[in-house]
Amino acid sequence: MRKQRDFDAELKALEDKARELKTRKVQQLGDLVIATGADQLSADELAGALVAIAETKDTAKREAWAKRGVTFFESGSRRTAPASGSNRRSPPAQPGGTQSPPIGSGSQ
User: How many domains would you assign to the chain?
Assistant: First the structure.
């Protein structure tokens, strides 16, 4: 006879995993802000810059920002941010499947 599945326990485990992933993503984004020095900006400035970046459709700008981000990570010139045990060159995927260019980089 088959063992009955405990759907409530499985759902709770999935919710816990989703919460853990969200917490890790927030931590990594905070680490990125600190590593780039963007923590010196006011919350309004940082939010405005992120909104402008997210709205940018110019592929050339986005590619330039991405190249600058790669250079930043490869140079090791980052500020010391708390290690989260993850690969910082691969930020978490954004819900839409695209990734935003790095903060504070690029041609405006």
Answer: 1
Report if residue 11 sits inside a domain: yes
pLDDT of residue 103: 47
Q: Which domain holds residue 57?
A: 7-75
Residue 95 within any structural domain of the chain: no
Q: Does residue 66 contact residue 102 with C-beta atoms inside 8 Å?
A: yes
Q: Which residues, including other chains, have CB under 8 Å from residue 60's CB and lie 6 or more apart? A: none
Residue 83 lies in a domain: no
Output the pLDDT for position 4.
87
Give domain status of residue 64, yes or no.
yes
Tokens of 79: 């500020």
Assess contact for 105 and 68: CB atoms under 8 A.
yes
Q: Which burial class, exposed, middle or buried, applies to 36 when counting CB atoms under 10 A from its CB (0-12, 13-18, 19+)?
A: buried
The pTM of the full predicted model, rounded to 2 decimals, is 0.60
- Once rounded to an integer, what is the mean pLDDT over residues 43-56? 96
Please report, as a single letter, which amino acid is at residue 84: S
How does DSSP assign 10-26, residue by residue?
HHHHHHHHHHHHHHHHH
Q: How many residues belong to the chain?
A: 108
